[in-house]
Batch of 2 targets.
Target 1
Amino acid sequence: MIVDKCKSKLLSTKNVSKNFGGVLAVDNVSIEVHENKITGLIGPNGAGKTTLFNLITGLTKPSSGEFFLLGKKYSPFKIHKVVEKGIARTFQNIRLFNNMSVLENVMVGRHVKTNFFSMGVFSSLFRITTYNNCENKQKEICIRILEKVGLLEKKDLMSSNLSYGDQRRLEIARALACEPKILALDEPAAGMNPTEKIKLKKLVKELLFEKVTILIIEHDVKLMSDLCDHIYVMDRGKIISSGKPTDIKNDKKVIKAYLGSTSK
Ligand SMILES: Nc1ncnc2c1ncn2[C@@H]1O[C@H](COP(=O)(O)OP(=O)(O)OP(=O)(O)O)[C@@H](O)[C@H]1O
Ligand SMILES: [Mg+2]
């Protein structure tokens, strides 16, 4: 077993690459995510940010490279295994269950943390006491999560009836329902208005206090500067720069590749 000596390093990738036909979407990327910190990933459209998230969370198989979680090598080839290991994520293109209520969406996210879905057909069919107790307890936890993200009053609405910003917060709630150690957020502020962005910033900072480590992709540079402890900048599959937000801002490579090439 390969053990990493740096204790605060919760997650890391080593020389990870992903080839789609002729496109090298992720090119030899090594990053580190430290416990109780907010690590950011920025870069122009098509830089490979989402692909890197997909590799870390088991949605896409790597062409090469290694992944480490809590100092141990892991193979992110199955998404449910990755969730069980403590990594949850949200999606750039919102993926909610539109025909379910807000609360039901969070309950689905909760199922990996509970065994009540696996309690057997008999107990669930006849809703015996243990099943009901377990279901009620899980519901309570989900309600508390909805309260945390500010969606409690909307718990019985169909998720498709939520505003864009609320749908993004529901995605966060669903990810939080499996009590992750690491929460990976892919453009959580996309489509949010300035007030919603302020609320999002507050929520992300609160999660740190609850010992959730954050990995975040965002195009909003101001939001990222305010939030992140450390930022990686990707361009054409490669990490072209990394450091504190102030270091990144003054890096000519970054200005050329990202800040100079987008109005976002
Ligand atoms: N499933 C796929 N099949 C083929 N090519 C893909 C696939 N997914 C991503 N790519 C390509 O890989 C490159 C990186 O895409 P990716 O979505 O990771 O970029 P991104 O940095 O997240 O961009 P954005 O900021 O627009 O979300 C792009 O050229 C994209 O077209
Ligand atoms: Mg993306």
Target 2
Amino acid sequence: MQRDPELTRSIHPLLAERFSPQQFDPSAAVDDHTVGLLLEAARWAPSAGNSQPWGFFTGRPGEPEHERVVRHLAPSSARWATNAGLLVVTLAHRYVGDTELLYSEFADYDLGQAVAHMTVQAQAMGLAAHQFRAFDLEGLTEELRPAPGWAIVSMIALGKAAGEPSETRDRRSIADLLSAPWSLSV
Ligand SMILES: Cc1cc2nc3c(=O)[nH]c(=O)nc-3n(C[C@H](O)[C@H](O)[C@H](O)COP(=O)(O)O)c2cc1C
């Protein structure tokens, strides 16, 4: 694991200071304009062949859409995600309609980039994002009934972070990123 505070401080503050909060401020509402900017940031992500294979479902506390999503959270994520000013369900367009024909080989990859854009835009606006998979995928799919070819992939809780990043956050070293994928027995 790498601990090189000097190098970390040298990357852009939007990246260096980002973290996934374990708590959100329940009094910090996310307004319509902010929701629009987050989706706009996602919209401008690159994608294979400009296929833009991403889709979102949003809900804020007090909205019926929020109710529909919150009831499918796992206990582990409900602890903090319920307090976030905005919940986003992310979807990838994997197949063409009901067929087994791929809409895009890179659907999940591209969705991830769109979410990264959204995350950085949130950080630039003083908000934080916590992506998660701790929800009942089957139940939420039944609830939202995505169109044929679309699949729910993840959720994002966005809002004002309450609390500091965990002390135990760590990363693999750059050397490991470059060496781990390759077999040494060639
Ligand atoms: C696809 C995806 C799924 C995740 N699922 C969960 C989850 O179910 N519960 C959770 O607490 N965090 C989840 N996370 C957050 C990661 O645990 C977190 O990003 C990672 O530990 C690095 O911490 P950091 O974001 O603060 O740098 C998920 C992140 C991603 C990208």
